[in-house]
Amino acid sequence: MSSSEGIGSSSAESRVAPASRSVAPLLEAVAATLRLGVLLYRRENPFRPAMVSYWFRAFCQTLLFTLLGVVAGGSAGGDFTFVGAVMLAGVDYTVSQVSDVPMRDRIDGTYPRIRAGRLTPAATFALRSLPAIGAGCIESFVVAVTVGAATGRLALAAAMLPALPLLVAAMLGAATIGLFVIAPAIGTRYDTLTYNTLTVFLTLFTGSIIPRGTHGVFDVVGIVMPLTNAMDGVRSVMSGGPWLAALGAELLVACAWGLVAAATYAFMDRRGLRTGQGAFEAS
After folding, report:
1. What total of structural domains would you count in the chain?
2. CA-CA-CA-CA torsion sign (72, 73, 79, 81)
3. How confident is the model at residue 270, as a pLDDT?
4. How far is CA 121 from the centre of its chain?
5. Model pLDDT, residue 13
6. Which residue range is the domain that position 141 belongs to?
7. Strands (E), the chain
8. Are 160 and 239 in contact, with CB atoms under 8 Å apart?
9. Which of 69, 198, 262, 276 has minimal Cβ neighbours within 10 Å of its Cβ?
């Protein structure tokens, strides 16, 4: 090898090495944050208490909506609300769990340490929310089987299986909007109000329980809500229609709320540095 080739090779290696050295710590931070999210979720949601509290509540809610659908529209009405309530159960759970992620650092007083890390607070909270997204999918599956068995709709539940990508997309959207709505409430007593109000909006405006087209205002609000496009896609899948466009629209809504959440956390972070309020406020 000539000297010029050796110089060229060494210069190329010198350019690659700093890049790899800068990326490696970031990947380590991502992996560590994911591990922490799983550990925190497992610590705060032991299997048996979770099964009794979250799953039983979701079973009762899904059963109630299904029976209300039967009362309002007969067997077809029950089928309609059953499908919507199954999706809604996991979305509601995801919103509730994800909203608790930032509040945990606020209560424990660890937020200032998070903002000193390699990842932004919004990225940290998003990564730590991933276990809740998976658990939300599981909750929807559990209520589909249990309520389906209780109401004679197991075949309907099985027909929903091809719509699994839409369910996952809906959980992603629930996570991003859940992170957004809790951000302004950090440091106040309104945290419970914010995500409970959001779950009401998800019930009313997404077409999960109340059919789209019932009221124009509901349809307009539903355009920007997670789950709306996923519900359209699920019902299309079950009738043999296309669903990829609905999946893309649902993911687009999730990404949009993710950007809004990131911008909100950046704003709240800067405000907290100036005022000492919010996540910086002593418990």
Report:
1. 1
2. negative
3. 81
4. 17
5. 47
6. 45-280
7. none
8. no
9. 276
